[in-house]
Amino acid sequence: MRERGFTRRIVAVPMCLLALATIYPMLFTLNVAMKSRREYVLNQFSLADHLTAANIADAWSSSGLGRYTFNSIVVTAGAVVLLLLLGSMAGYAFSQVTFRGRKWLFLVCLGALMIPFQVIMVPFFRVLGQVHLLDTYPGLILAYTGQFLPFTIFLMTSFYSRIPAEVVEAARVDGSTTLGVYRRIMLPLGRPALLSVGILNALFCWNDVLISLLVMQSEQHRTLMVGVTALRGQYSDNIPLFAGGVLVAAVPVIAIYLFFQRQITDGVTAGSTKG
Question: In this protein, which residues make up the domain named ABC transmembrane type-1 (predicted)?
Answer without folding.
Answer: 69-260
